[in-house]
Design a protein that fits this description.
Length: 283
């Protein structure tokens, strides 16, 4: 059992990139709560524990004026338990449909809730050695749009590559939009792309810029550029101290020793090419 009485926004939520890519329908409050739960898991843990939270801290977590923390939290946990996430199988031969948490046990006398994470998520949250991303809560909790949160995660996991391209249909699916929702391009661009770009650049440790790509008369793809947000780092919103594995792997592909690759990304976190050039010039 692990008891968590305070919200520490310096905590880091670490997940397999496969889980980050999974399609889900969590709303903003549910996403914040689940990130809080997994930030209590260490990537080298071998088993899930029972995570015990103080209910009174919930309003602070979700930035809610509602004084009835029990009622709000029960609605959130009930909804999460009932929602299914589709996770690609590690062997690439199908998907796993799974809930994110399997139970929430409320103790009114102690003012706590004990949460258990679904056992099927073990490969994506425990004993992670490769292809995972670590996100500090303080970089994602201030985001007020669920689309901003999802795009931040998708791009943070590829920060070391400096860019990421999606087809419009792929991006719609990744952020959880059903067919017919925000189907007009101008609505999609305003609610998803513009809002996410503005929020992420103002509040997080990365800077992004999107480019619309047309095929004929129709927008068919979106390309994002990604770099470190040094301005927010200077304000005290420090960059994550944990190098993204995708970044390290990109350097190792070019023959950079792993320990050297990690050091390079502590010194040159903006993009892979910059770190690689530094390596070549100082070898």
């Amino acid at each position: 059992m692990k008891i968590i009485n305070l919200i520490n926004k310096n905590q880091v939520a670490t997940r397999s990139n496969i889980l980050i890519e999974a399609r889900h329908k969590l709303n903003l409050q549910e996403q914040r709560f689940f990130l809080w739960v997994i930030s209590c898991i260490q990537p080298d843990d071998k088993e899930f524990e029972e995570y015990v939270f103080n209910v009174s801290t919930f309003s602070e977590l979700i930035d809610s004026p509602d004084t009835n923390s029990y009622k709000s939290l029960k609605e959130v946990t009930k909804s999460i338990i009932g929602k299914v996430v589709e996770v690609p199988r590690e062997d690439g031969k199908g998907i796993i449909q799974v809930g994110l948490i399997s139970s929430a046990d409320y103790n009114y006398g102690e003012g706590t809730v004990s949460v258990t994470v679904h056992q099927k998520l073990k490969p994506y949250l425990l004993d992670l050695k490769e292809k995972f991303t670590s996100i500090q809560l303080k970089n994602i909790m201030p985001l007020r749009s669920i689309y901003s949160q999802k795009i931040y995660e998708l791009l943070k996991s590829r920060q070391g590559l400096g860019q990421r391209k999606f087809s419009v249909e792929e991006l719609r699916d990744k952020v959880g939009l059903d067919k017919g929702v925000l189907s007009r391009w101008d609505n999609f661009e305003t609610r998803v792309l513009k809002t996410s770009e503005k929020e992420i650049n103002e509040k997080t440790d990365i800077l992004i810029k999107y480019e619309k790509i047309k095929t004929g008369r129709k927008y068919t793809a979106v390309n994002f550029t990604i770099k470190s947000n040094k301005k927010n780092a200077k304000k005290g919103q420090l960059l994550s101290p944990i190098p993204q594995l995708a970044e390290v792997e990109a350097l190792i592909k070019y023959g950079v020793p792993k320990t050297k690759a990690i050091k390079l990304f502590k010194d040159h976190s903006e993009k892979t090419t910059e770190a690689l050039e530094s390596y070549k010039n100082n070898s």
